[in-house]
Write a structure and sequence with these properties.
- It is a single chain.
- This protein has a domain at about 25-64.
- Strand 1 (about 30) and strand 2 form a beta hairpin.
- The N and C termini lie far apart (about 25 Å).
- It has a two-stranded antiparallel sheet with strand order 1-2.
- The model has no long low-confidence stretch (mean pLDDT about 80).
- The protein is mainly α.
- The radius of gyration is 13 Å and the shape is globular.
- The chain contains four helices and two strands.
Length: about 60
């Protein structure tokens, strides 16, 4: 069982993760194994100057 499977089954944990992810002042990016952007928070947007809609589903050159 993966961490994602566990989180999906444990809705309170998923809710806590989402709260921390969106409220933290740290820039957090989530990437797939191939470097594709899955998700990032507002702090990441502010630090790197990209909107979520610009990068989700794309590969950042620095992740390769």
């Amino acid at each position: 069982m993966t961490l994602v499977d566990t989180a999906v089954k444990d809705i309170p944990a998923l809710s806590l993760f989402e709260s921390i992810f969106s409220a933290t002042m740290d820039a957090i990016g989530v990437f797939a194994v191939d470097g594709t952007v899955v998700q990032f928070n507002k702090s990441f947007e502010m630090m790197f100057g990209y909107a979520s809609s610009e990068l989700v589903g794309k590969v950042l050159p620095v992740t390769r």
